[in-house]
Design goal:
Layout (H helix, E strand, L loop, with lengths): L1 E6 L13 H18 L4 H6 L2 E2 L2 E8 L8 E11 L3 E10 L5 E10 L1 E2 L7 H4 L1 H11 L11
Antiparallel strand pairs: 1-4, 2-7, 3-6, 4-5, 5-6
Length: 146
């Protein structure tokens, strides 16, 4: 598990003074980019190799609202890794109390610039190995074969 922390900006809130539901997905994306940097596989390195990672599926369960000015920690885990896709789980928690405010999951594929699937085990073995190591780190993650 890796942790990404941020403070809620005013423009991210809705008329009810809570984070607009769509912003949680943005938080997940920020946390995933941070996760990749933390494990030594920055997203920019993939883009330089002309590999993209589009979202294939997303889900979010809203538990308690988050409000302007609050600081949250997004706990991110790599839960599945195959040769052509991966899945992450997220918990948005109050940074002070640890209370879980939302949970979500995103599934990503790996494609080339023409939109064709990329076998990460063959084309980026060092990246693939680091991701596999994260799924085997004992955080309840599982490795998925393609």
């Amino acid at each position: 598990m890796k942790i990404y922390e941020r403070t809620v900006n005013y423009y991210e809130t809705d008329q009810m003074a809570v984070i607009h539901h769509s912003n949680y997905i943005r938080y997940f994306e920020e946390a995933r980019i941070s996760f990749m940097a933390q494990i030594g596989c920055p997203y920019e390195a993939l883009e330089r190799e002309e590999i993209r990672s589009p979202v294939l599926a997303v889900s979010c369960r809203y538990i308690q609202p988050v409000r302007f000015g609050e600081t949250v920690q997004i706990r991110v885990r790599l839960t599945r890794m195959s040769r052509v896709k991966c899945s992450f789980s997220y918990e948005v928690c109050d940074a002070e109390t640890g209370e879980i405010r939302a949970r979500g999951e995103l599934e990503h594929g790996f494609i080339d610039k023409d939109g064709r699937p990329v076998n990460m085990q063959k084309s980026k073995p060092e990246f693939f190995a680091r991701f596999i190591a994260e799924t085997e780190s004992g955080d309840g993650a599982e490795r998925q074969k393609a």
